[in-house]
């Protein structure tokens, strides 16, 4: 499918919270679907109103989950994990396994669990997005269920690419993805806060220190993503012999920052696996 061609058949959302709003707005902003082809159901009127405002004039508000399924070829499940089975059961009677695709962003809910409330043969894709999708800078991975076709996978790739980076992966790796990119923004926010605190301690005004820290992290991340160079090579290019950077790096090693981040990711991944089994 050409990159600039819209995705036909309508896109629906079961759930209209912040992630649903970010995804839908990104799809519209990327020219993949017009607002009039987007429909969402959420029992909260406030969430429904916020969804309409985020997506734009013409976005539709459904009265039920089944109405979403009747109206959309691709349906995003964007509810809390503990509400996933109930939401799917409410939509199951209208599901057409030969025509529709379910894309779940419910954290920890496996492809097997997603399939249970739906008719046999339902095409399902499980996605692990992260909160920077809200500003079009997300990092998403997705796993195809056994009945999802290559064309449906291509649709998901195009949709997720409208809100950031997207990559297909086996489902068994999604817990690791959760630990890294799903939980990772919180780890980076902690790093930004600490860098700003260091700037304040060194004499910078708080507001300036916060701005410098945020832009420094964004710029460094952009260097890794844009150049394709290994982070260690980029780091070494900054660290002059006997200079300020190598002195600071020695302190990071002394305090175990690298080990702490590795443990944070692996612990979050373990917790994701535990939640998937509960």
UniProtKB/TrEMBL annotation:
<dbReference type="InterPro" id="IPR000304">
    <property type="entry name" value="Pyrroline-COOH_reductase"/>
</dbReference>
<keyword id="KW-0963">Cytoplasm</keyword>
<dbReference type="InterPro" id="IPR008927">
    <property type="entry name" value="6-PGluconate_DH-like_C_sf"/>
</dbReference>
<comment type="similarity">
    <text>Belongs to the pyrroline-5-carboxylate reductase family.</text>
</comment>
<protein>
    <recommendedName>
        <fullName>Pyrroline-5-carboxylate reductase</fullName>
        <ecNumber>1.5.1.2</ecNumber>
    </recommendedName>
</protein>
<dbReference type="GO" id="GO:0005737">
    <property type="term" value="C:cytoplasm"/>
</dbReference>
<keyword id="KW-0521">NADP</keyword>
<dbReference type="GO" id="GO:0004735">
    <property type="term" value="F:pyrroline-5-carboxylate reductase activity"/>
</dbReference>
<keyword id="KW-0560">Oxidoreductase</keyword>
<keyword id="KW-0641">Proline biosynthesis</keyword>
<feature type="domain" description="Pyrroline-5-carboxylate reductase catalytic N-terminal">
    <location>
        <begin position="11"/>
        <end position="108"/>
    </location>
</feature>
<dbReference type="Pfam" id="PF03807">
    <property type="entry name" value="F420_oxidored"/>
</dbReference>
<keyword id="KW-0028">Amino-acid biosynthesis</keyword>
<feature type="binding site">
    <location>
        <begin position="78"/>
        <end position="81"/>
    </location>
    <ligand>
        <name>NADP(+)</name>
    </ligand>
</feature>
<dbReference type="Pfam" id="PF14748">
    <property type="entry name" value="P5CR_dimer"/>
</dbReference>
<feature type="domain" description="Pyrroline-5-carboxylate reductase dimerisation">
    <location>
        <begin position="171"/>
        <end position="275"/>
    </location>
</feature>
<dbReference type="InterPro" id="IPR053790">
    <property type="entry name" value="P5CR-like_CS"/>
</dbReference>
<dbReference type="InterPro" id="IPR028939">
    <property type="entry name" value="P5C_Rdtase_cat_N"/>
</dbReference>
<dbReference type="InterPro" id="IPR029036">
    <property type="entry name" value="P5CR_dimer"/>
</dbReference>
<feature type="binding site">
    <location>
        <begin position="14"/>
        <end position="19"/>
    </location>
    <ligand>
        <name>NADP(+)</name>
    </ligand>
</feature>
<comment type="function">
    <text>Catalyzes the reduction of 1-pyrroline-5-carboxylate (PCA) to L-proline.</text>
</comment>
<dbReference type="GO" id="GO:0055129">
    <property type="term" value="P:L-proline biosynthetic process"/>
</dbReference>
<comment type="pathway">
    <text>Amino-acid biosynthesis; L-proline biosynthesis; L-proline from L-glutamate 5-semialdehyde: step 1/1.</text>
</comment>
<dbReference type="InterPro" id="IPR036291">
    <property type="entry name" value="NAD(P)-bd_dom_sf"/>
</dbReference>
């Amino acid at each position: 499918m050409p990159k600039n061609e819209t995705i036909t058949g309508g896109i629906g959302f079961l759930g209209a919270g912040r992630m649903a709003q970010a995804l839908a707005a990104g799809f519209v902003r990327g020219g993949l679907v017009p607002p009039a082809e987007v429909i969402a159901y959420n029992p909260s009127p406030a969430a429904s109103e916020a969804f309409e405002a985020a997506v734009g004039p013409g976005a539709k508000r459904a009265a039920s989950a089944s109405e979403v399924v009747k109206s959309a070829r691709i349906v995003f499940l964007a509810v809390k994990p503990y509400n996933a089975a109930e939401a799917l059961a409410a939509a199951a009677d209208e599901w057409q396994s030969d025509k529709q695709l379910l894309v779940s962003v419910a954290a920890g809910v496996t492809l097997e669990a997603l399939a249970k409330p739906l008719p046999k043969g339902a095409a399902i894709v499980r996605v692990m997005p992260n909160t920077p999708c809200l500003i079009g800078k997300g990092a998403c991975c997705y796993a195809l269920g056994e009945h999802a076709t290559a064309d449906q996978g291509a649709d998901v790739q195009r949709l997720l690419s409208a809100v950031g980076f997207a990559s297909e992966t086996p489902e068994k790796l999604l817990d690791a993805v959760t630990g890294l990119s799903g939980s990772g923004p919180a780890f980076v926010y902690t790093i930004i806060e600490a860098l700003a605190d260091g700037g304040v301690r060194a004499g910078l005004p708080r507001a300036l220190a916060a701005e410098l820290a945020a832009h420094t992290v964004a710029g460094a991340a952009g260097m890794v993503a844009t150049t394709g160079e290994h982070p260690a090579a980029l780091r070494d290019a900054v660290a002059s012999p006997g200079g300020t950077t190598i002195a600071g790096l020695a302190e990071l090693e002394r305090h175990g920052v690298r080990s702490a981040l590795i443990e944070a990711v692996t612990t979050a991944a373990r917790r994701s696996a535990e939640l998937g089994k509960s």
